[in-house]
Amino acid sequence: MLKIITLHNQNINYNLKTSPRARNLRLTVCCDASLVVTKPQGLADILVEKFLHSKANWIINKIDYFKNHVNTQLKADPKEYRRYKKEALHLVRRLLDEYNQFYNFKINSIKIKNQKTRWGSCSRQGNLNFSYRLALLPEDLASYIIIHEICHLRELNHSYRFWNLVAQACPDYPDKRKRLRLIK
């Protein structure tokens, strides 16, 4: 649901999503400078607005950053998607084969998508989805994303056990996460 809120005398458009799986409010400023707010079911909209006001400085700084400094090469684009989809699929399959020899988890399906906000995702059915933008990343960051999603096949969360699994194949994952945040 599209909404508007005024923060520091600026009207900010945002997309409010309700998720049955969400436990907390989550803010995402996408690389196109759009704001997405995800809330748990049953949470009143007035609490969402209160939360947005408490995070106003962060929101405005992130939106300004993406408006002024975004790497246009990494924006989700239909033409780029068609151009890089096969290359991304080849890269993903190669890295999955390499790292899943270590983990040996069952993968159901692999898809390359034109995602704006996620590098990858994993479903309970063992389906792995990746952004075509992996083909535009340095290979060490693409490897980290592959390892991250493989580990979700065992731990569908970000618990201590999950991060221990990631660390087995990628001990420097905290550095790679920081580098990805600068791109996203």
CATH architecture descriptor name of the largest domain: 2-Layer Sandwich
**What is the number of E strands?**
7
- Helix-strand pattern: EEEEHHHEEEHHH
Q: Please give the count of helices.
A: 6
Number of domains: 2
General shape: globular
Report strand %: 15-25%
Distance between the amino and carboxyl termini: 23 Å
Query: And the CATH topology of the largest domain?
Result: Zincin-like
Please state the CA-atom Rg, rounded to the nearest Å. Answer: 18 Å
Major beta sheet summary: 4 strands, mixed
Low-confidence stretches: none
Order of neighbouring strands in the sheet with most strands: 1-2-4-3
How would you characterize this protein structure?
This protein is 46% helix and 21% strand. Helix 4 (139-152) crosses helix 5 (160-169). The two termini are 23 Å apart. The protein has helices at residues 45-54, 56-69, 78-103, 139-152, 160-169, 173-183, and strands at residues 2-7, 10-19, 26-29, 35-40, 109-113, 120-122, 127-131. It is built from 6 helices and 7 strands. Strands 1-2-4-3 form a 4-stranded mixed sheet, with helices on one face. Strands 5-7-6 form a 3-stranded mixed sheet, covered by helices on one side. By secondary structure, the chain is α/β, with parallel strands linked by helices. The protein is globular and about 55 Å long. It folds into 2 domains: 2-70, no CATH class; 78-183, 2-Layer Sandwich (Zincin-like), CATH 3.30.2010. The longest helix has 26 residues, at 78-103.
